[in-house]
Design brief:
Blueprint: H1 7-17, H2 22-37, H3 41-50, H4 67-79, H5 83-91, H6 97-118, H7 124-135
Helix pairs in contact: 1-2, 2-3, 3-4, 3-5, 4-5, 4-6, 6-7
Amino acid sequence: MKGKYSRQVKTAVKLIWSSFDRDEIRRGYSILILEAQKGDADALAFIARCFMGEEYVWPQAGFKVDDENASKLMQKSAMMGSATGVICAARSSNLTPSVERQCRLLRLRKRLRRFSVRQSVATPSVATWSAMCIIGATICVSSLTMPSNSKMKTTIT
């Protein structure tokens, strides 16, 4: 993740989607399983693709179509922060509102952490408000305090 696939995931993807040899494909799949067990969200997204049928993987690769398993893996991948998981989930109608909320919360937490480190001189409420403005996402907020002397126009949905 972090903008790039790991070396192992790249190797696995190449073995699965650039080979017509079932043994090589199985080796690539094994690599993805190992990486997913280590917590690689991108590996989960590619494993999900293996179970999604011939639109996503060579039909003679030997993967059985399993929509339910593919959906769960893809959604988990997206919720863990994989951009590949989010894109695949959106394409296959698996980006449900609950998955989308989980992805948004993950991004929000990461951005708030990065922002608060950069803005250590700002007060927490100002830093939080500024981070929410920077993110630009639609955020449901039950209560938000703004300084009373603020002249900013606020739109929160």
